[in-house]
Amino acid sequence: MFSVLFRVFSIASILALLMGSLSAHALQPAKGKVVLTLSGNVAEKNTPKAAVFDMEMLEKLPQQTFTTMTPWDKQPIKFTGPLLRDVLAAAKATGATIKAVALNDYQSSMPLDDAQKFDVILAHKMNGEDIPVKTKGPLFIVYPYDSKAELRSSVYYERSAWQLKSLTVE
User: Fold this and answer.
1) Would you give the end-to-end CA distance of the chain in angstroms?
2) Are 161 and 120 in contact (CB under 8 A)?
3) Is residue 154 part of a domain?
4) CA nearest 159: which of 98, 103, 104?
5) Per-residue pLDDT tens digits for 51-89
6) Model-wide pTM > 0.90
7) d(C-alpha 124, C-alpha 137), whole Å
8) Sign of dihedral through CA atoms 103, 140, 33, 116?
9) In sequence order, which residues have a C-beta less than 8 Å from that of residue 162 and are 6 or more positions away?
10) Is 9 part of any domain?
11) CA–CA separation, 101 and 163 (whole Å)
């Protein structure tokens, strides 16, 4: 009797540990207002069809900060936000192309490789302040334009969607 109970308890303990470790890596549901919807080839979803993020979820990811000139501003701007590759990894997104859609339905497309090749961020802060909607927020895809000459071109500027609301990975 004791050996049967021990085996049942051991199996239950192992299952509990495994389930606990799996849920620790699962994408948690958004608690606040959703600011980003990531859909398409996404393996880790927290809604039936997509991975959605509130600002707190994005702020819990490692943050990157850099200062760069943009074609839209007269002075260098300090941007802060998670690396795009970290956001994609949180949702286990895979594919070749990312389609970005802004609040005003502006659309741009970028190769998924850009997220690996460059330190592209989903900026939620400009010069240390949250980015309001009227100033390109709440999220802005920003390349580190000053880090490489090739990034200072219309190709990359056009991929930098501001007022970002969704990404679709294909």
Assistant:
1) 55
2) no
3) yes
4) 98
5) 999 999 999 999 999 999 999 999 999 999 999 999 999
6) no
7) 7
8) positive
9) 102, 136, 137, 139, 140, 141
10) no
11) 8
